[in-house]
Amino acid sequence: MKSSTKRSMLTAALICALTAISVAVPAQDKEAVIKNREALMKGQGKDLGSVKAYTEGKGDLAQAEASAVNLTQTIRKIPDAFPPGTGGTDLDGKFATKPVIWSDWNKFLDAQTTAAAKADALLVAVKSGDKAAIQTAFGDLGKNGCGACHETFREKLKD
Amino acid sequence: MPRDVPRETQRLTAAALAAICLAFGGLAARAADTDPAERGAYLATAAGCADCHTDAKNGGRPYAGGRALTTPFGTFYAPNITPDLDTGIGRWSNAQLLNALREGVSPDGSNYFPVFPYPSFTKITDDDARAIKAYLLAQPAVRQSNRAHDVAFPFSWRFLLNGWKLLFFSPGPFRPAPEGGEAYNRGAYLVTALAHCGECHTPRNWFGAMEPSRFLAGTTHGPDGKAVPNITPDLETGIGKWSEDDIVALLKDGQTPEFDFVGGAMAEVVRNTTRLTDADRRAIAVYLRTLPAVRSETRAAK
């Protein structure tokens, strides 16, 4: 192989590598990523609200079930909502990500997998319509799914 | 042999009687032994003893101490409160435990730093303190020496704590308000004594003492330098818009009215409050909603 060909191939590889890095964290999109993950979390809050409303006799079962289905899906979108390089405070300056999300990504994935399993259990309970079972599953998802992640990976900056 | 039959019966009767006596005696003894310990387990949960006295992050054994508590005055390491005779509290008398909780004085007569929340625990009733001790002594003993605190001069001079106590510490058991009602008084006891909510949620003065006039008004300099929210019923800066049910839901599932789930140190607390009775969670809510509202922003300094 001619050395000029080798050099141009190396250059191409380097360009590809650099492009890959910049594609992973497009600076202009960081705000969009943060906005998107806030919307994702707030949507989950809403879905949890509608499940809870049913257990309190304030909402209907069909709505609760649709919300529980949503939860099982949106919780699985969490890893994609945290691409590397998108750490920092949220748009209200209320919360911030902790760097451990990316320094220990597997731990983050484990916590997310746990939460997803608990959302699945909540859906099973909602489908049964048994309010006591729903309350138990709701508490478990809240404390040991959502809350456990927030405890380890989220920083509260102000109220 | 016919003559032996009655003797045999006698023997059997005696054995049966002995067995019955033993059974009853055993039951009575068990009731006396385990009842306070079981009650103590519940109280220790409400007080969150295990949270500070277990170095969970580093795989420490329950109640064996070693957890680092970072404060503006230095880093404190919680002591071993397992029944180990040499490194724990296995040799402590009831009076010594009461003295520790009530007066902040260790068995060797020295003062505890108020990172041990005795300004709150002083209100714990004798019965409850004894039940907590019974529970702690029923836990597995762990041999683990206490680590010395890492506190800078002049705070490292323990005798200065005598002055601190004179100024800021008012010992004495909880006194229920006769007009308050059962739930209010139970809530007051849980919040101010056992669960020691004020230790994190009340701002502290320059000497690290809680400011009584701003009880539960939140602080920007809580544990580990984190902001701790105002939980007085102020409408703007506190939780005045929360219903009793909202407070109960937070204590049960860690869920806020916006369906967020609390993280940080409160997630640890919720692991305890979720194990309390519904009546106790409700009592806490009832009491919190009667507090004077204090306007106080608790944004973190950064």
Question: How would you sum up this structure, described in words?
Answer:
The complex is a heterodimer of chains A (159) and B (302). Chain A has 159 residues and is mostly helical. Chain A has one domain (31-156): Four Helix Bundle (Hemerythrin (Met), subunit A) (Up-down Bundle), CATH 1.20.120.10. Chain A has helices at 3-24, 30-55, 61-74, 100-103, 105-128, 131-153; strands spanning 95-97, 154-156. A two-stranded antiparallel ribbon of chain A has the order 1-2. The longest helix of chain A is centred in the first third of the chain and has 26 residues, at 30-55. Chain B has 302 residues and is mostly helical. Chain B is built from eleven helices and three strands. A three-stranded antiparallel β-sheet of chain B has the order 1-2-3, with no helix packed on it. The relative contact order of chain B is 0.11. Chain A binds chain B through residues 41, 44-46, 48-49, 52, 138-139, 142-143, 146-159, and chain B through 218, 226-227, 229-230, 237, 252-255, 258-264, 267-268, 270-271, 274, 297-300, 302.
